[in-house]
Design a protein that fits this description.
This protein is mainly α. The protein has 5 helices and no strands. The protein is elongated. The N and C termini lie far apart (about 50 Å).
């Protein structure tokens, strides 16, 4: 019976250490496909080409949705929202708004992940 208890404790400790590692790891997201599509969207909006913009925006939304299925990312949600808003702006004929929204989405995509900071650290030595 002691062997069973030791085995259960060992398995639970291994399981919990795996969860701690997963919870503490930073989110590494790759936006290269979305950046390429975003730049094509930007070119289409500057050229006032609504059909090309709509096609590329739909493709970008699908890519964002596929990446969103892999994990819940607040940055990806902001990007996806800006893409949808830009698509609506093009449908209403406002290419200026679509250009600015696409540029904002590109800035969001190109942001680098900062080092994670945890509470309790101080800058001064104690």
């Amino acid at each position: 019976m002691n062997f069973k208890h030791i085995l259960v404790v060992l398995l639970l400790s291994l399981c919990s250490s795996g969860m701690v590692y997963a919870a503490g790891s930073p989110i590494n997201e790759d936006y290269t496909a979305l950046i390429a599509l975003g730049e094509k969207m930007l070119e289409a909006s500057k050229a006032s080409d609504s059909t090309t913009f709509t096609t590329i925006a739909s493709e970008a939304s699908d890519v964002a949705k596929d990446q969103g299925n892999k994990g819940n990312s607040p940055r990806l949600q902001r990007i996806s929202t800006k893409i949808k808003m830009a698509k609506k702006a093009v449908k209403s004929g406002d290419f200026g708004l679509a250009t600015s929204l696409t540029e904002e989405a590109l800035v969001e995509m190109k942001k680098t992940n900062g080092k994670p900071t945890w509470g309790g650290t101080t800058s001064g030595g104690e």
